[in-house]
Design a protein that fits this description.
The structure holds three protein chains of three kinds. Chain A has helices spanning 2-18, 21-26, 29-45, 49-71, 104-108, 111-123, 134-143, 154-162, 194-204, 217-228, 233-237, 250-260, 268-274, 309-320, 322-330, 333-336, and strands spanning 97-103, 126-132, 148-151, 166-181, 209-211, 243-245, 263-267, 281-284, 291-299, 342-343. Chain A has a single domain (96-343), classed as D-Maltodextrin-Binding Protein, domain 2. Chain A is globular and about 55 Å long. By secondary structure, chain A is of the alpha/beta class. Chain B has helices at residues 2-16, 20-53, 59-68, 74-85, 100-124, 128-136, 141-151, 153-169, 172-178, 188-197, 201-226. Chain B is mainly alpha-helical. Chain B has one domain (30-186, 217-227): MetI-like fold (Orthogonal Bundle). Chain C has ten helices and 20 strands. Chain C has a six-stranded mixed β-sheet with strand order 6-7-8-3-9-10, sandwiched between helices. Chain C has a five-stranded antiparallel β-sheet with strand order 13-12-11-14-20. In chain C, strands 15-19-16-17-18 form a five-stranded antiparallel β-sheet. Classes of the chains: A alpha/beta, B mainly alpha, C alpha+beta. Chains A and B meet through helix 1, helix 4, strand 2, helix 7 and helix 12 of A and helix 2, helix 5 and helix 10 of B.
Chain lengths: 351, 228, 352
């Protein structure tokens, strides 16, 4: 009876360990033995069901604390902390972590999901990818909460570097924004220039427009087009009910536009990735202003010494390396029949 | 509406096939929420007892404040924890932002008022005669406190379930403080948010169903303990 | 030997003075009943004796030691007593655990607890419900658990607060039987409260009448009933005919009625009381030894169980007379009928 209980408890520990990949990665048999010992101590006193529960809960608590310890370290922990390495691939995995704040359009297209394991394998690092609009990504960068940012808002990025938060702005890919809308195109903007199309939307009032409205790179681009069309953005916001501010990521905004049969501005990658799910067609796809450049910026270690500048540079080198550039150029061809991004390592594409 | 049906089937598929990524996320949700609830309970149950059993000036006001904090939005806690733990913040040096530890801290802050408030009301719900009966039968003050807590156990377990429910279902802290990092801080709610942002509505609903199943299991287990 | 004594005990709740200067001695081994109407302060006094509340002033002695304090002394003293409250309170656990708690708190060993609890369960006839949750018991059963729980700790003094107040007649007689059993078996000192004079007489050796927070009378059980010391006690023990009168020599003037007392009183105002069962009703004027004879008219007849209360108006005064149903039909009494009243001067209680 007693033996049986212990064994169950043991399985419990095993299960809990599975909870976190990172934990499994760095949790050795030695560490588990410690947990087991503590648990046995508790179990020894009270063999009842409640004891078993408390044992399980304590394990979870220890686990929670342990997760915390792991998460704390972009700096490699001293070697002696690492348990004697059993001859498994698992145990050789690193605890070094690096954080990337990335724009949602890069995340939602699945590009990061594609690149992450390759980078992790090559550099022996745990890459934490946090997706957010360009606005919040830049804010995290300014506060030093991430090590590198990948965004698509040239003006903001230049300011970011100029203010000393970023080391250097390195472009690595581009594509184009599209103005998409309902297939029947009520305002008749098909084939117009982006500025002319916006002007028409404003003047005719036929059809609605869904804006990101969230200080993202796409939103910044939209504002630039309104400016190019000769409007003050604040006036546009007050122009009428046809102008809808979603305040959400690209995906939800696109879905909303489809639901409302409205026009919206979308990056090509996201539009292709969502192509099957929305009832919208591209109406304006030419115009220098529609250029959408993605760049990566390492956070300046002079501002935030605790950031992982070395690994950030590794990532930027990785993104601009010929093999990965080729990979980016081919990403999506298989699925959508055309590439989602055009690689442009280090060279700003001309507008 | 057909999506909901598809989502339901998908949820069952994911559960039956023990989809490793989904299981991992669900496990993390359980681990983080359970850790927060246990740690918060270790603080709140005795503290709630102290507040209930001791008379001190400002007690009513304190209880009102605690009850008001029931409705604090998780995003506000998320923001608060973010500015505390951000590198530019006062304890940024710990470098704990975007880790499960900080999520646990955020969850603890979120559910502390609930656990405290409900513990106090659970104890106040016990007939005053219980205390006198215990004392008259020769219980020391401490023994009387224990038996009053035992009388309140159903309501206290309900408080813990409530706290777990709030922790496991909140999104603001998971996003603001956790960062929704795949394989590290992604929990069910932030995964749901991501999937719905990606337009994967079925997957999002399926994860929602898994979250509810998880809560159901926790509920059943805690109630079994309580019935002892 | 006096086991519990209270001296000059007063208790004030805000403006209300619940107990005023109480002095009581409880002899070891006796059953003392505190009787009095609801709100007289009986429960308050019992709680003070059990050290559940602190008096506003006055001292409590247990075994000749002043124990008027909480804390350690309070706990130790309290552990020599047990208290059963009016409303049966049970812990939300099994009947067995309920009874075992008091022993557990005293650090009694497990096997000893098991034996004692089993014995007591047998005694209170609840062995079948041993593992039932006490919360599911009926009021009478719950009260038996409460009493069993109290006697399990073998107290030197058992405090019972209205042990049958909320119970039906059958449960009441069971509880009374149980209390009698305890008295015989353990010889425990019992201080109980009741508002039921008859119950006090059935169970107690001595009776303390408590009215409005004051002790009005202390005496042997029959003494209080037979010879109430003042108007309030008289009223409480069921003398329904209580009148304000003017004493003059051996007579009392009750409005315009002249009542023969058979003894000399000081000339002053005072009260006169007669039990309703001590008054005789007849159709004809009785020529007996009864000195007081009046003619009156029946104003009302009220049924009270086996008995009838006949209200007779003599002049402006209404007398209440208790007679059996037989007497009622034999005499063919009806409202409005004219009849004669008579009572002995020895049946008259006087208070000045």
């Amino acid at each position: 009876m007693r033996v049986n209980k212990k064994r169950q408890g043991g399985e419990n520990v095993g299960e809990n360990v599975k909870i976190s990949k990172s934990l499994r990665d760095c949790c050795s048999a030695g560490k588990m033995r410690v947990n087991e010992k503590i648990r046995r101590k508790i179990m020894g006193k009270r063999g009842k069901r409640i004891g078993k529960m408390i044992g399980g809960l304590v394990v979870i608590v220890l686990l929670g604390l342990f997760i915390g310890r792991v998460g704390r370290a972009p700096v490699p922990p001293p070697v002696e902390v690492l348990p004697p390495a059993p001859p498994t691939v698992e145990a050789l995995r690193p605890v070094e972590r690096m954080r990337v704040a990335t724009t949602t359009s890069l995340y939602d297209t699945g590009l990061w999901g594609h690149l992450e394991p390759m980078f992790e394998k090559e550099f022996n690092v745990e890459l934490d990818i946090i997706y957010a609009g360009t606005g919040i990504a830049l804010a995290w960068g300014r506060r030093g909460d991430v090590d590198v940012i990948a965004t698509h808002a040239k003006a903001y990025e230049k300011k970011f570097v100029a203010e000393g938060y970023g080391v250097q702005r390195v472009v690595f890919a581009y594509n184009y924004f599209l103005i998409v809308g309902p297939p029947d195109d009520p305002a008749g903007i098909k084939g117009l220039s982006p500025e002319a199309a916006f002007k028409r939307l404003m003047e005719t009032g036929l059809g609605r427009f869904v804006s990101r409205g969230d200080a993202s790179g796409t939103h910044g681009k939209e504002k630039a087009i309104w400016r190019g069309a000769g409007y003050d953005y604040e006036a546009v916001r007050r122009a009428g009910k046809w102008y809808i501010e979603a305040g959400r990521g690209m995906g939800p905004t696109l879905l909303m536009a489809s639901e409302k049969q409205a026009y919206t501005l979308v990056d090509m990658g996201t539009f292709l990735a969502f192509g099957g799910e929305v009832d919208l067609v591209p109406l304006v796809d030419e115009g220098a202003i529609l250029l959408n450049v993605y760049s990566a910026i390492a956070i300046n270690p002079e501002r935030h010494p605790k950031t992982n500048i070395e690994m950030a540079n590794n990532l930027i080198e990785f993104l601009t390396s010929p093999e990965i550039q080729e990979l980016i150029g081919n990403y999506g061809v298989e699925e959508f029949g055309m590439p989602l991004f055009i690689p442009c390592a280090g060279a700003e594409p001309k507008e | 509406m057909i999506e909901v049906w598809h989502a339901f089937i998908k949820a069952i598929e994911l559960i039956v096939s023990l989809d490793p990524e989904v299981m991992e996320i669900a496990g993390r949700s359980l681990g983080i929420s359970a850790t927060s609830v246990i740690l918060a309970s270790l603080i709140c149950l005795p503290l709630g007892g102290l507040i209930h059993f001791y008379r001190f000036p400002g007690k009513r006001v304190l209880i009102n404040v605690i009850q008001t904090l029931f409705s604090i939005p998780s995003v506000c806690i998320g923001l608060l924890v973010f500015v505390l733990f951000s590198r530019a913040g006062p304890i940024g040096g710990l470098n704990l932002l975007f880790t499960p530890t900080t999520m646990v801290i955020g969850h603890m802050m979120l559910i502390t008022p609930i656990l405290l408030g409900l513990t106090i009301s659970a104890l106040s719900g016990v007939d005053k005669a219980i205390k006198d009966t215990a004392l008259s039968l020769g219980a020391s003050d401490f023994q009387a406190v224990i038996i009053i807590s035992k009388e309140a156990r159903f309501a206290i377990v309900a408080a813990i379930i409530m706290g777990f429910g709030r922790a496991v279902s909140e999104l603001g802290i998971a996003l603001m403080v956790g960062g929704n990092i795949r394989g590290f801080t992604r929990v069910l709610t932030s995964a749901i948010a991501l999937e719905s942002q990606k337009g994967e509505l079925e997957m999002a609903i399926a994860l929602g169903i898994i979250l509810l199943s998880l809560s159901f299991i926790v509920n059943v287990v805690l109630n079994r303990i309580q019935q002892r | 030997m006096v086991i519990v004594e209270v001296r000059n005990l007063s208790k004030r709740f805000g403006e209300k003075e619940s107990l005023k200067n109480i002095n009581i001695k409880v002899e070891s081994g006796e059953v003392l009943a505190l009787i009095g109407p609801t709100g007289a302060g009986k429960t308050t006094l019992l709680r003070l004796i059990d050290l559940l509340d602190m008096p506003t002033s006055g001292r409590i002695y247990f075994d000749d030691t002043d124990v008027t304090q909480l804390g350690k002394v309070g706990l130790e003293t309290r552990r020599r007593m047990a208290f059963v409250s009016q409303k049966p309170v049970v812990f939300n656990t099994t009947v067995y655990n309920n009874i075992a708690y008091g022993l557990k708190w005293r650090g009694v060993g497990k096997s000893s607890i098991r034996q004692k609890v089993d014995n007591i369960l047998e005694m209170v006839n609840l062995s079948d419900h041993k593992n039932r949750n006490a919360g599911t018991l009926s009021g009478g059963e719950a009260q038996r658990v409460a009493i069993a729980r109290a006697i399990a700790v073998e107290p030197e003094v058992l405090l019972l607060d209205e042990p049958t107040a909320n119970l039906d007649p059958i449960s009441t007689s069971r509880i009374e039987e149980l209390i009698t059993n305890i008295i015989h078996r353990y010889g425990t000192t019992i201080v109980m409260t009741t508002h039921d004079m008859a119950q006090g007489q059935r169970l107690a050796d001595r009776i303390v009448v408590l009215i409005n927070g004051e002790v009005h009378q202390v005496g042997e059980r029959s003494e209080v009933f037979a010879f109430p010391r003042d108007r309030e006690v008289a009223e409480f023990v069921g003398m329904k005919n209580i009148f304000l009168v003017e004493f003059k020599g051996s007579k009392a003037w009750l409005q315009n009625l002249e009542v023969e007392l058979g003894r000399e009183m000081k000339d002053a105002q005072g009260y006169l009381a007669i039990r309703p069962e001590d008054i005789v009703i007849s159709r004809e004027r009785l020529s007996s030894s009864m000195r007081n004879n009046f003619r009156g008219v029946i104003s009302k007849i009220i049924r009270e169980g086996f008995y009838y209360e006949v209200q007779v108006k003599v002049g402006w005064v209404i007398f209440k007379v208790l007679i059996t149903g037989n007497a009622l039909s034999e005499l063919d009494l009806r409202e409005g009928a004219s009849i004669y009243l008579a009572f002995k001067s020895t049946a008259i209680h006087t208070f000045q």
